[in-house]
Amino acid sequence: MTSKFKGALLAGASGLAVAFVMTAQPAQAFDKVDWTWNADVTQRVRANVDINIALDPTGLAMVEDLQVSIGDLTARSVVNGVNNNQPNTGGTGPQVVDLGILEFTGTRDLQSGEVTSTGIATDVANESTFSNGTVNTLGDGVTMNFDLGTITVAAQPGTGSFNALSDLPEVISAATAVANNTSIQADTSVQLHEGQFAMGSSNVSDSDANSLGELGVVLANGDVNSNLIGAALIGTGALTGAIKPAAISAVSSVANVLNASVDSAATAVANNLTVTVEAVGDDRALIADVVQVAIADVSATSSVSNLNVNSYTNLGRLDAPMVSSVASALGNNKSITVRAPVVVVTP
């Protein structure tokens, strides 16, 4: 092993670095793709399939993508103490509302007696129409406190409730931790070479570096796909203890909510790939070579506690649950869709 290769291994914090510097030649897109599929099924059905397709797409999206995440990831969302105090919960007939106290400070011209400031309190002071309060006009300063009194609000007798379909608010809490993520949407053919690697810290000794380096050289000389070389080296490093697992966690917590629905979601993912090809004719094609490796402890927690709802009708007719609490923990995830576009015909 040369010092260049060994240094790259140590600096890269894992055998993954070796995977891309050990190769005799620079890595090419789709290093080598030679897929052979032979199916000979004998039950009640015997199938012999020979497919030979020649496509002439009008466009091409070719993606060579490498994603590496080293270290821990944490996402946390905490919601506590949401109080929706409705002004007419459970009451019947007229309701008395206290308007409170209005405090005002202004400047008074000693010669003209005019009070200058902004706000409605200035007009009230100049006209001296307030019915209750105190005024201090010593010097050029004016301070006033107004007792605004109470007002009576009419309410429909016998109701005292709110329609949940239109008046019930929603509390949303979401925490998402993702190490590597790729999302591709195309209306033409796609060719994808994807490598996603998630791991924790490493402690590569000289002997581990030499062993992993020798393995990388053997695989590279064997014309093995560069992403597969990386997967092999990372897996070997994890088995020998040279590479530690990453901690990827997401926590969503909602507590002490009054008069609101709750949607809590926590999602933790090491590697995620989403590809959607929506095209017509020869453009509706996808060729993909995907390698995902996760050396990680992945966890997700969603909790909802102490939720209270009162004085609402039609709760049973809501189109969503009063409480939704979802936790998803994924190591490696792929979603691939190839379809023709939806055509809407207007009569």
Question: What does this molecule look like?
Answer:
- It is a single chain.
- The protein has 347 residues and is an alpha/beta fold.
- It has 2 domains: 3-83 and 169-339, no CATH class; 100-148, no CATH class.
- It is 16% helix and 45% strand.
- It has 6 helices and 19 strands.
- The chain has helices at residues 3-11, 16-21, 120-127, 164-167, 206-221, 226-239; strands at 41-42, 46-47, 60-70, 73-83, 95-98, 101-108, 115-116, 133-136, 141-147, 150-153, 162-163, 170-186, 189-199, 246-258, 261-278, 286-294, 296-308, 312-313, 323-339.
- The strands form 7 sheets. The protein has a 4-stranded antiparallel sheet, with helices on one face. Strands 3-13-16 form a 3-stranded parallel sheet, with helices on one face. It has a 3-stranded parallel sheet with strand order 4-14-17, with no helix packed on it.
- A hairpin with a 3-residue loop joins strand 1 (41-42) and strand 2.
- The model is unreliable at 1-29 and 118-134 (pLDDT under 50).
